[in-house]
Write a structure and sequence with these properties.
By secondary structure, the protein is of the alpha/beta class. The protein is built from 13 helices and 26 strands. The chain folds into two domains: 281 residues, FAD/NAD(P)-binding domain; 186 residues, FAD/NAD(P)-binding domain (3-Layer(bba) Sandwich). Strands 1, 2, 3, 4, 5, 6, 17, 18 and 21 form a nine-stranded mixed sheet that branches. The protein has a five-stranded parallel sheet with strand order 7-16-8-9-12. Strand 17 and strand 18 form a beta hairpin.
């Protein structure tokens, strides 16, 4: 007999540990286990180990609402975030529930429960399955096919699999890309490299934020930790949401603001216009954050520079550009983006029928149409991941409580509306490459996935868990549908 649990959580990262904490808090006595494919807690923050890796969301909104962030920096290092997640798991008594090196490959729903199969052949069963593995492909990042790469004689690396033995001290480095990873790597590597060049096909919008939150620091000196955390969190939520709404409603105004930041730091309007003026509108892609303007500082010091051009091919000494220029490099870092993978790559079947996530509709941004007793965790694209994740955890707990109270065995979202649109609203390459593999969203509640935490935090805790849902009281085919 396979070991059985009330709930199985996939992933021991920021989301999975948060889900376990909420489950213990709101449903004491519920049996659960966390299945983690890697051998450590942390998820994304354990995977990425490249120089300077950090959060681009402030820690007062990225951290858990139930465990205040005590670190000095608001934009924190990857290591400190990983330690925070581990400490939360230890403090909450969650760590003993984690099974490491337990990669879930498939899950089949039948006879009122899930049978979950691991890569090593072990099977477990559960009443409810909750996927908290994020949406990154942990096995590989996006890697374009660069012509002539085999001719290159230097070191070529991808940030997602950073080699421990790489020493870039005194070396010429080229970082390909202009996204969050690139703007993090360049100033970090420029501290010891001979020179770092950020090679981009087109510019991205950058915004400068302080690494420390002076208001939060003041609050923490004057107020109890939990109160200060709540006030700082609310302040940052309001500011970020206001800026997002301004960007969508007054894009030209926001363009001017962002350009002003860059000109103020670089003191070179022509350089800003050439390398930091994108063709798209602000928040069509996620804004890249520069803590304390570190990238601009490296450029002004001359330890880093930006080249906007296209790669023609790699040559033994570096990269030849379409303009005819050759960038000589001892090390090339391909910060060319991530690969997205829905539900952690787990194959789902319901009564023998394989679920195609790309043909499903997201129910309240938490469940999938036609899939019983299954939830997945996905964050905001315009705010901290944890803000939506925690709402999802609490919703799952409410749904489980309703099932128990009403005597139901399962809850299955209905088919959803006919009119559908993509789940993610960004034009970023890494999103567009994978849109057809992700669930869609509809045009009405509860089938829309809003990018508005202020609305969600008011409505999600009060959402009717019965709406557009089909329930069963037993494994027999007697259904009760509530619309």
């Amino acid at each position: 007999m396979a070991e059985h649990f009330d709930v199985l959580i996939i992933g021991a990262g920021l989301s999975g540990i948060g889900a376990a904490w909420r489950l213990q808090q709101e449903r004491p006595g519920t049996s659960y286990a966390i299945l983690e494919a890697r051998d450590a807690v942390g998820g994304t923050w354990d995977l990425f180990r490249y120089p300077g890796v950090r959060s681009d969301s402030d820690m007062f909104t990225l951290s858990y609402p139930f465990r205040p962030w005590q670190g000095d920096r608001s934009l924190a290092s990857g290591e400190s975030i990983r330690e925070y997640i581990q400490d939360t798991a230890d403090e909450g008594g969650i760590t003993p529930h984690i099974r490491f090196s337990a990669r879930v490959v498939a899950a089949d729903w039948s006879a009122g429960h899930w049978t979950v199969r691991l890569a090593d052949g072990e099977t477990l069963t559960c009443r409810f399955l909750y996927a908290c593995a994020g949406y990154y492909d942990y096995a590989r990042g996006h890697q374009p096919d660069f012509p002539g790469l085999d001719d290159y004689t230097g070191r070529f690396v991808h940030p997602q699999s950073w080699p421990e033995d790489l020493d870039h001290t005194g070396r010429r480095v080229v970082v390909i890309g202009s996204g969050a990873t690139a703007v993090t790597l360049v100033p970090a590597m420029a501290e010891t490299a001979a020179h770092v060049t950020m090679l981009q096909r087109s510019p991205s919008y950058l915004t400068v934020l302080p690494g420390r939150d002076v208001v939060a620091d003041l609050l923490r000196r004057r107020l109890p930790a939990r109160v200060a955390h709540k006030v700082a969190r609310a302040k940052n939520v309001l500011l970020s949401q206001a800026f997002y709404q301004l960007a969508r409603r007054r894009p030209e105004r926001v363009k001017a603001i962002l350009r002003g930041f860059a000109v103020r730091h670089l003191a070179d309007p022509a350089y800003v216009d050439e390398h930091f003026t994108p063709a798209y509108q602000p928040w069509d892609q996620r804004l890249c954050v520069i803590p304390d303007g570190d990238l601009f500082t490296a450029i002004r010091k001359g330890t880093a520079s930006v080249v906007t051009d296209h790669i023609e091919r790699f040559v033994p000494e570096g990269i030849r550009l379409r303009s005819g220029r050759t960038l000589e490099a001892d090390v090339v870092v391909s910060a060319t983006g991530l690969s997205l993978l829905p539900i952690g790559g787990v194959t789902l079947t319901v009564d023998g029928r394989e679920v195609e996530p790309g043909k499903s509709v997201a129910y309240r941004g938490v469940m999938l149409s036609g899939v019983p007793n299954f939830a997945y965790c996905i964050g905001y694209t315009n705010a901290s991941w944890t803000l939506r994740a925690d709402l999802s955890h609490r919703y799952v707990c409410r749904l489980l409580a309703f099932l128990d109270k009403s005597g139901y065995v399962s809850a299955t979202p209905n088919d959803g509306p006919a009119h559908r649109r993509p789940l993610l609203d960004l034009t970023s390459g890494y999103v567009q490459r994978a849109l057809d593999r992700f669930p869609q969203q509809g045009d009405r509640d509860p089938w829309t996935v809003r990018q508005n935490y202020l609305l969600d935090v008011l409505t999600t805790p009060r959402a009717d868990v019965r709406r557009d849902m089909t329930f069963t009281r037993s494994t027999a085919p007697v259904l009760e549908e509530i619309r």
